[in-house]
């Protein structure tokens, strides 16, 4: 092959070789960077989780930590179900949500809203004090699911997805709205699960929180 300006085949092959070598070095650097970032992110997450576990343990001992869960069966394809946790006005308490966990038998879209309007109340969710030595009704909160909720004036805080047959912590160590969410009195959080599969399916939601 002939080249202009004295550019020879050997020079061309040498340039190609240097480019290939540079690409290999860049790939290696990016690979190490990914590992470093992943390691740092994992270490950071583990530190946060460890702190929250210790904090939650202390709240459990004090009898101010609670859990509430419900299962919505037969949610139609393209249908939705909402799970609502409320801290009512005048409660005198701040609610710190530690985990919102959604589990489904099929894939779904998950949206979390702040302060929706309840147009029709749903089914009450049982609330359990995580310290069995204390009464369950020590909580100031109420929880429900399956009602009708107007989100037109609400603030969407999170969009994520639920792969079929697995769980997602919408707030917590996997995908989150901050490391912990505080709900002052007079506010609420709504989790909307929309079935994106081709058939009806079952979904559950669990809130874990403490009050102070």
Can you give a write-up of this model?
By secondary structure, this protein is α+β, with helices and mostly antiparallel strands. It has 2 domains: 1-61; 65-211, Jelly Rolls (Sandwich), CATH 2.60.120. It is 25% helix and 42% strand. The chain has one helix spanning 9-61; strands at 65-75, 80-87, 95-104, 108-114, 117-120, 123-124, 127-129, 142-145, 148-150, 155-162, 167-171, 181-183, 187-195, 201-211. Strands 1, 3, 7, 11, 12 and 14 form a 6-stranded antiparallel sheet that branches. The longest helix has 53 residues, at 9-61.
Q: Roughly what fraction of the amino acids lie in strands?
A: 35-45%
Instruction: Summarize model confidence as the mean pLDDT.
Output: 81
Largest sheet: 6 strands, antiparallel
The CATH architecture of the largest domain would be: Sandwich
Residue windows where pLDDT falls under 50 for at least 5 positions: 171-178
Distance between the termini: 80 Å
Give the strand tally. Answer: 14
Give the helix level as a range of percent: 25-40%
Shape: globular
Key structural traits:
six-stranded antiparallel β-sheet, alpha+beta, about 210 residues, Jelly Rolls, 1 helix
Task: Please write out the topology.
Layout: H1 9-61, E1 65-75, E2 80-87, E3 95-104, E4 108-114, E5 117-120, E6 123-124, E7 127-129, E8 142-145, E9 148-150, E10 155-162, E11 167-171, E12 181-183, E13 187-195, E14 201-211
Antiparallel strand pairs: 1-7, 1-14, 2-8, 2-13, 3-11, 3-12, 3-14, 4-10, 4-13, 5-9, 6-8
Entry summary:
The protein is an alpha+beta fold and 212 residues long. The chain has one helix spanning 9-61, and strands at 65-75, 80-87, 95-104, 108-114, 117-120, 123-124, 127-129, 142-145, 148-150, 155-162, 167-171, 181-183, 187-195, 201-211.
